[in-house]
TrEMBL record:
Endpoints of the signal sequence: 1-19
GO biological process, alphabetically ordered: proteolysis
GO molecular function: aspartic-type endopeptidase activity
Any one annotated GO CC term: fungal-type vacuole
InterPro entries, per the entry: Aspartic_peptidase_A1, Aspartic_peptidase_AS, Pepsin-like_dom, PEPTIDASE_A1, Peptidase_aspartic_dom_sf
Spans annotated as Disordered: 458-483
Protein name per its UniProtKB record: Aspartic peptidase domain-containing protein
Lineage: superkingdom: Eukaryota
Family to which the UniProt record says this protein belongs: Belongs to the peptidase A1 family.
Originating species: Lentinula aciculospora
Length: 483
């Protein structure tokens, strides 16, 4: 079900940048092209490693939010991703200049950043704490050691994510390399103050959402930032790659593998947990079940989804027609405010769907009111959850709806959380999330030129990772809402 698309060029973001003539803000002048069918192999791709997912969102937006074939063709710009932190966080290798970092892969935000060496660390209540408490994987980015780094003066970087982490700093440009894709002069957040709950592996994050969700502001005082009044939007990494002609197609693609049960129960780094591919589809086995749908735009003033001749894109939001599961007879209401977010572990679905789904486990999953998660014995029979998008039904492997909690009940049974979380009532302004629970089952290809996403059901696969020590975690270690 496609509605007519209007393409908005990323125009008029040129800021008066007072710096050397070599500094340019990379503002897209992309014009639409028809993508080839089937989707081609990527120019570049990279592997993903896993760690704990959080959903992050900016402080300002939170207020507004109310509180295959491809593989065989070979690919140049593809990189593996790996998992850390109980396989809840997906990481990939990214290079700034010549310095390598593992960054979280996040389709729910737009900025790419790393802490600068010597940064100050804070807890989420903004108390100063030792640097080690931020738990980055390295001591940070040394801008002085990068010959290609250029500072952007009179601006500041300021972001807050949905789980309460927040970061401020300066702004600069450097060459970003990921999966063999080299993007010169990419604008980056250089974090000097971090309230961050790291996993010991990541040294920042790579944001893949819209330019309008970026977090660079006028002036050097983060306290004076106003979204969107003083925001200076810029092109995130993949937008720059398209604008600079580095990739042959204007899409990137993500395939996130589920980890093994053991790896999901471990904070260790779990290599090879999928791929992110640039310029084509990620190299995993797929089925014929696929659909291309428009990204839902927003009214920038109200932050509500809107179909209008002029909309603003923030997240990769899609119109979900229905959600169901085996044994269910009820048709649940639809919502057009669901985002595809690699940075969130669980699916956040409307309360009535989450409650009914939990009740359909055998034995039923029980809601833990303290955490909002649904807890069930790991030996439960799990109904197959389905999501209908654009008239096509995608299935969620039951394995994705059992996340080991590392605790047992009184009878010694291992307890699991379901992968489906109560995201609140299906009412206007409430944003829901298809997170890693859903994304383990599809390849999502994000076309930034046509503002469309293509979802392709993956062929069933054996859970990745494994061979790692089992550790205990608490329900609260399930990361939430890194929008
Ligand atoms: C990979 O790069 C080579 C050399 O640049 C090029 O000839 C080839 O077509 C590329 N392959 C793909 C799948 O893009
Ligand atoms: C990142 O790079 C390191 C060093 O080259 C390599 O050992 C590791 O496997 C890479 N990890 C991922 C997720 O690509
Ligand atoms: C954190 O505290 C500093 C002062 O130490 C203040 O400047 C800053 O605005 C605070 N940040 C937040 C997000 O409250
Ligand atoms: C980078 O160099 C500048 C000027 O030499 C210096 O003031 C600054 O402390 C250095 N920064 C780091 C992180 O070493
Ligand atoms: C992909 O499919 C091929 C052919 O059926 C199979 O040999 C291969 O093992 C599959 N790869 C994965 C990762 O399942
Ligand atoms: C936009 O139009 C589509 C197709 O008619 C519809 O499914 C969707 O709910 C609409 N979105 C909004 C925000 O009205
Ligand atoms: C960004 O926001 C501005 C102002 O709302 C809008 O004119 C522009 O089209 C938006 N760009 C995108 C890519 O949504």
């Amino acid at each position: 079900m496609l509605f007519s698309r209007v393409y908005y060029g990323l125009t008029v973001l040129i800021a008066s940048v007072s710096a050397t003539p070599t500094i340019r803000r990379h503002v897209s002048s992309i014009s639409p092209r028809t993508p080839p069918t089937p989707l081609p192999a990527a120019d570049f791709s990279t592997a993903i490693t896993a760690s704990v997912p959080r959903t992050k969102a900016k402080r300002f937006l939170i207020q507004a939010l109310r509180e295959s074939q491809a593989a065989q063709a070979g690919s140049n710009f593809t990189t593996v991703v790996g998992g850390s932190d109980f396989d809840e966080e997906y990481l990939t290798n990214v290079t700034f200049g010549e310095q390598d970092f593992l960054l979280i892969v996040d389709t729910g935000s737009s900025d790419t950043w790393a802490p600068q060496i010597g940064f100050s660390c804070f807890d989420l209540s903004n108390n100063s704490v030792p640097q080690s408490q931020c738990a980055f994987g390295t001591s940070g980015f040394d801008i002085n050691a990068s010959s290609t780094f250029v500072t952007l003066p009179d601006t500041n970087f300021n972001i807050e994510y949905g789980d309460g982490e927040f970061l401020t700093g300066t702004v600069g440009f450097d060459t970003v390399t990921v999966g063999g894709m080299v993007v010169p002069n990419q604008e980056l957040g250089i974090v000097t103050n971090a309230a961050w709950e790291g996993d010991g592996f990541d040294t920042g994050l790579m944001g893949l959402a819209s330019p309008n969700l970026t977090s660079v502001f006028e002036g050097t005082d983060p306290g004076a930032d106003e979204f969107p009044q003083t925001q200076i939007p810029y092109n995130p990494v993949f937008y720059s790659a398209v604008q600079q002609g580095v990739v042959s197609n204007p899409f990137f693609s993500v395939a996130l593998d589920r980890g093994s049960f053991a790896a999901e129960n471990s904070p260790d780094l779990d290599q090879n947990l999928g791929f992110i591919a640039f310029g084509g589809i990620a190299p995993v086995n797929i089925t014929d079940t696929a659909i291309t749908v428009p990204v839902q735009g927003y009214n920038a003033a109200t932050f509500l989804p809107e179909n209008a001749s002029s909309v603003t894109y923030f997240y990769y939001t899609v119109d979900v027609e229905s959600m169901s599961f085996t044994g269910n007879e009820k048709v649940f209401g639809t919502t057009n405010n669901i985002i595809l977010d690699t940075g969130t572990t669980l699916d956040y679905v409307p309360t009535e769907v989450a409650d009914a789904f939990a009740a359909a486990f055998d034995p039923p999953a029980m809601k833990d009111d303290d955490d909002g998660i649904y807890v069930v014995v790991c030996s439960a029979t799990v109904p197959e959850f389905t999501v209908n998008i654009g008239g096509t039904t995608f299935t969620v492997d039951p394995a994705d709806n059992l996340l080991p909690l590392g605790v047992t009940d009184d009878e010694g049974n291992d307890l699991c959380a379901t992968g489906t979380f109560d995201g609140g009532p299906a009412e206007e302004g409430n944003i829901f999330i298809l997170g890693d629970t859903f994304l383990h089952n599809v390849v999502v290809t994000f076309n930034i030129e046509t503002d469309e996403v293509t979802l392709t059901q993956r062929a069933p696969y054996t859970n990745g990772g494994g061979g790692v020590g089992v550790q205990r975690r608490s329900p609260s270690s399930l990361r939430r809402r890194r929008l």
